[in-house]
C-alpha cells in the first residue's frame, strides 16, 4: 500500500501548525486558528491509545482496499485513510452516552467510536453478522450499542438529522451532545444551512464537524465553493466557528473539548472545520491521483500523515520506542486480520431476511 | 355519537395522543402561535406548551430531518407539512431516511413518526398547490400511507398512526377539513391497512380512497335512483392495501371502477387494477375502468379546473360503461 509508514522530512514538520492545506495556501484562510498545545492534556497512556486508534483505522482500511480488489467488498467503498486524526481526536473527547452521526466515509469513525471491527468488516463483506445485518454495507454502518447513528449516503442529508438528535436531547433536558461529521462539499447543500439555522435558533447541543479534504469527489473546493473559507458560514447562523489543523490529533481534541463544553454548559452548537486530506481516491473506483489532483500534490500532503505526525512527536519526546510502535502496529494488523477472518467465515444473510426490518411488526 | 368536522376529529386525535404519551410532539410551520394554517392544531400550544407544539421556520427539509433525528433516539414526532406540495422539498428525509432507516440499520433504528398535512386539489390554487401525492409515497417500502376520507377515519387512523412504531405518511384532504360526520368519542382507533365497505350494492364496485370517497358516495346515491346499486370500497390506507377487501367486493359485483384524485400514469389505480386482474380474473364481466385527474397540471380557470378533476359525472359514465349501459 502507498500508505505504509515513511519518515517525515523536517520541512513538513515545520508546517504542522498551518493545517493540511500546505500545498495551496488553504491553511492560511483559517478564521480563528487555535494554536494546539503540543500534547494537549494527555497522559503518555492516552497518547498511546490515540496512536492505537488511528493505526487500527489505517490497517483496517488497508485490508478493506485489499478485500475490495478481491471482490469480497462490493458497491461503493469510501476510505478514510489520511483523515484519522479527526475521528480519533473527536471521539476520544466525548462520552459513551453522546451520539455520533456521519456520512458514507464512515469506517474510521465507527472504529474510533468503538464499534466492533469484526461487525464492521462483516458488514462490508455483506454477511449476516455485520453490524447492519448485511443490509447496509460500507455506507451504512449503524451500531445502537455505541450510539453510532449511521453512515448516511446522501451528501448533507444527515446534518438536519443531527439537529433532531440535539432537539431530542433538549426535549429530555439531557446534557449529552451529538457530533455530526460531513465533508466540505456538504456546505453547499440546502440541508446543511437549514440544519445550522435550526440548531442555532433552538440552542441545540450539536457539534458540526466539516472534514475539509478539499475535494467533493473529483471537484476541488476552489471549483465548487464561492468562499473557500467554509467556517465563516457559522457567522451567518450566529454560531461559533473554528478552523483546525485536522492532521493534528491534539488540535482536534482541543477544539472538540471547547465545543463539547459549549454544548453541555451553554447548550450551543459549534461549527468546526478540520482541514485534512484524503490519501486515497474518493471511492475505490476512483484513481488516487492523476485526474483531478496531481501526484505531486498528493505526495506533498502525505508528508503530513496524521499518524506519522503523532508518532514523530511521541518519538521526539522519548516516549515511544520502535519496539513499542511495532507492537501497537502489529496489534492493529492482528485485529484487522481477525476481523477479516471473522467476516470471511460468517454466513451470508439467509434469504428470509430479505423481507425483515422493513417495518416493525405492530400486529400484536 | 357526536357530529364533528374532519378538522376537529384530527384535533381530537392529536390532543388525545399528546396527552397519552409525552414523547409525542408536533412540529411544523404555523402549528403553534397561529393555531395551524388549517387550524388543525388549534388550542394545542396553550395546552401543551412550546416544547411540544413547535413552530418552525419555512424549512421543510430541515424540520423533517429534525423529526427523523428525534425519532431515531426515541421521541415520537408528528411533522406537519402546511401542504404536501411543500413536502416535496423534504422528500429525501421521508423516502431516503425515515422509510429506509430500519432496513439499512439491520433492524436497529425504527422510526416512530408521522408526516402529515393536506393533500390533493383545492379550489383555483393552480398547478403547484393542487395535486395528490399518494402514489409517490405508496411506492416506497418502509412507509405506511393513510388517506382518510371521513371524520371518523381521520381520527381513528391518526391515532393509529401516532401509536405506530413505523413512519406513517398521513394525507389529509385539503377540501375535507370542513366536512362533517359522526365520530366516536375517546378511544377510537382505526387499524392501518384495513379497508371499509362504505356502501353496499350488487352491480359494480367503486374502489377509492381519500377525498374521492365522497364522490363515490354521491355516485352511489345518484345511481340508486336508476336502480343501479354499488359497492363503495374505501381503502382508507394505500400502503398497505387491503387486497382482500377489494377482491371480496369485485368477486361479488364482477365489475369495478377505480376512482382516484391523482394522475393516471403509475397512479394508485394502476396498482388496484393489477390486484384485481390477479385476484379476480375469472370473476370479471367487463374491463376495469379508471377515473382520475386529466393528464395535465392543474389549471387555474374555473372551467378548466372543473374539466381537469375527476368528479361524479365522470365516475357515473365509467360505471355505466362497465355495465354496458352507455
The main sheet of chain B orders its strands as 3-2-4-5-7-6-12
**Chain-averaged pLDDT of chain A:** 90
Please identify, by name, the CATH architecture of the domain at 18-44 and 68-116 and 137-312 in chain A.
3-Layer(aba) Sandwich
CATH superfamily name of the domain at 18-44 and 68-116 and 137-312 in chain A?
A: Thiamin diphosphate (ThDP)-binding fold, Pyr/PP domains
Distance between the first and last residues' Cα of chain A: 53 Å
CATH class of the domain at 18-44 and 68-116 and 137-312 in chain A: Alpha Beta
Strand content of chain B: 15-25%
User: Would you count the extended β strands of chain B for me?
Assistant: 14
Shape of chain B from CA axes? globular
Number of domains of chain B: 2
Q: At the third CATH level, what is the topology name of the domain at 18-44 and 68-116 and 137-312 in chain A?
A: Rossmann fold
Instruction: Encode the helix/strand succession of chain A as letters.
Output: HHHEHHEHEHEEEHEHEHHH
Task: Give the neighbour order of strands across the main sheet of chain A.
Answer: 2-1-3-4-8-7
Low-confidence stretches of chain A: 1-37
Which second-level CATH architecture of the largest domain in chain B applies?
Answer: 3-Layer(aba) Sandwich
Instruction: Provide the CATH superfamily of the largest domain in chain B.
Output: Thiamin diphosphate (ThDP)-binding fold, Pyr/PP domains
Which segments of chain B are poorly predicted (pLDDT under 50) over 5 or more consecutive residues? none
- Quick one: which chains have the greatest interface? A-B, 46 and 41 residues
As a whole number of angstroms, the C-alpha radius of gyration of chain A is 20 Å
Amino acid at each position: 500500500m502507498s500508505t505504509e509508514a515513511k519518515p517525515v522530512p523536517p520541512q513538513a514538520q515545520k508546517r504542522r501548525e498551518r493545517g493540511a492545506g500546505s500545498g495551496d495556501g488553504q491553511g492560511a484562510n483559517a478564521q480563528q486558528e487555535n494554536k494546539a498545545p503540543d500534547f494537549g492534556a494527555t497522559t503518555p497512556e492516552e497518547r498511546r491509545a490515540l496512536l492505537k486508534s488511528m493505526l487500527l483505522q489505517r490497517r483496517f482500511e488497508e485490508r478493506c482496499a485489499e478485500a475490495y480488489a478481491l471482490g469480497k467488498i462490493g458497491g461503493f467503498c469510501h476510505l478514510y485513510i489520511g483523515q484519522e486524526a479527526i475521528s480519533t481526536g473527536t471521539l476520544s473527547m466525548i462520552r459513551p452516552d453522546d451520539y455520533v452521526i456521519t456520512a458514507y466515509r464512515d469506517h474510521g469513525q465507527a472504529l474510533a467510536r468503538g464499534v466492533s471491527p469484526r461487525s464492521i468488516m462483516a458488514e462490508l463483506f455483506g454477511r449476516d453478522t455485520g453490524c447492519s445485518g448485511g443490509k447496509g454495507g460500507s455506507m451504512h454502518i449503524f451500531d445502537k450499542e455505541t450510539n453510532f447513528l449511521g453512515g448516511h449516503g446522501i451528501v448533507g442529508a444527515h446534518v438536519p438529522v443531527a439537529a433532531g438528535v440535539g432537539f431530542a436531547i433538549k426535549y429530555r433536558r439531557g446534557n449529552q451532545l451529538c457530533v455530526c461529521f460531513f465533508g466540505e462539499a456538504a456546505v453547499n447543500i440546502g440541508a446543511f444551512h437549514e440544519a445550522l439555522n435550526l440548531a442555532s435558533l433552538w440552542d441545540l447541543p450539536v457539534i458540526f464537524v466539516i472534514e475539509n479534504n478539499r475535494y467533493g469527489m473529483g471537484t476541488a473546493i476552489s471549483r465548487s465553493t464561492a468562499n473557500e473559507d467554509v467556517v465563516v458560514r457559522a457567522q451567518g447562523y450566529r454560531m461559533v466557528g473554528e478552523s483546525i489543523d485536522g492532521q493534528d490529533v491534539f488540535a482536534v481534541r482541543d477544539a472538540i473539548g471547547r465545543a463539547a463544553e459549549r454544548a453541555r454548559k451553554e447548550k450551543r452548537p459549534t461549527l468546526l472545520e478540520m482541514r485534512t486530506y484524503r490519501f486515497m481516491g474518493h471511492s475505490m473506483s476512483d484513481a488516487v491521483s492523476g485526474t483531478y489532483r496531481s501526484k505531486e500534490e498528493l505526495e506533498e500532503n502525505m508528508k503530513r500523515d496524521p499518524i506519522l505526525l503523532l508518532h514523530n512527536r511521541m518519538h521526539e519526546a522519548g516516549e515511544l520506542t520502535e519496539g513499542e510502535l511495532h507492537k501497537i502496529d502489529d496489534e492493529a494488523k492482528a485485529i484487522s486480520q481477525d476481523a477479516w477472518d471473522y467476516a470471511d467465515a460468517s454466513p451470508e444473510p439467509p434469504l428470509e431476511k430479505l423481507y425483515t426490518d422493513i417495518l416493525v411488526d405492530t400486529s400484536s | 355519537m357526536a357530529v364533528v368536522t374532519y378538522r376537529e376529529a384530527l384535533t381530537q386525535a392529536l390532543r388525545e395522543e399528546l396527552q397519552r404519551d409525552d414523547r409525542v410532539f408536533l412540529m411544523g410551520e404555523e402549528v403553534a402561535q397561529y393555531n395551524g394554517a388549517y387550524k388543525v392544531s388549534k388550542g394545542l400550544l396553550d395546552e401543551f406548551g412550546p416544547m411540544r407544539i413547535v413552530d418552525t421556520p419555512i424549512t421543510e427539509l430541515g424540520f423533517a430531518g429534525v423529526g427523523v433525528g428525534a425519532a431515531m433516539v426515541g421521541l415520537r414526532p408528528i411533522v406537519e407539512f402546511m401542504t404536501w406540495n411543500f413536502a416535496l422539498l423534504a422528500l429525501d428525509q421521508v423516502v431516503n431516511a425515515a422509510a429506509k432507516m430500519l432496513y439499512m440499520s439491520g433492524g436497529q433504528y425504527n422510526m416512530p413518526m408521522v408526516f402529515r398535512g393536506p393533500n390533493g386539489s383545492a379550489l383555483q390554487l393552480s398547478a403547484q398547490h393542487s395535486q395528490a401525492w399518494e402514489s409517490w409515497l405508496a411506492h416506497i417500502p418502509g412507509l405506511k400511507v393513510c388517506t382518510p376520507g371521513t371524520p371518523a377515519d381521520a381520527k381513528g387512523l391518526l391515532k393509529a398512526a401516532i401509536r405506530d412504531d413505523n413512519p406513517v405518511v398521513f394525507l389529509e384532504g385539503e377540501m375535507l377539513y370542513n366536512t362533517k360526520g359522526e365520530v366516536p368519542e375517546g378511544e377510537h382507533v382505526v387499524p392501518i391497512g384495513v379497508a371499509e365497505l362504505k356502501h353496499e350494492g350488487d352491480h359494480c364496485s367503486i374502489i377509492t380512497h381519500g377525498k374521492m370517497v365522497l364522490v363515490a358516495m354521491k355516485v352511489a346515491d345518484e345511481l340508486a335512483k336508476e336502480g343501479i346499486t354499488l359497492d363503495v370500497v374505501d381503502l382508507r390506507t394505500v400502503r398497505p392495501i387491503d387486497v382482500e377487501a377489494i377482491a371480496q367486493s369485485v368477486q361479488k359485483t364482477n365489475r369495478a371502477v377505480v376512482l382516484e384524485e391523482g394522475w393516471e400514469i403509475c397512479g394508485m389505480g394502476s396498482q388496484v387494477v393489477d390486484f384485481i386482474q390477479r385476484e379476480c380474473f375469472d370473476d370479471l364481466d367487463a374491463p376495469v375502468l379508471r377515473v382520475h385527474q386529466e393528464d395535465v397540471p392543474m389549471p387555474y380557470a374555473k372551467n378548466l379546473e372543473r374539466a381537469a378533476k375527476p368528479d361524479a359525472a365522470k365516475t357515473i359514465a365509467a360505471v355505466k360503461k362497465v355495465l354496458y349501459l352507455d
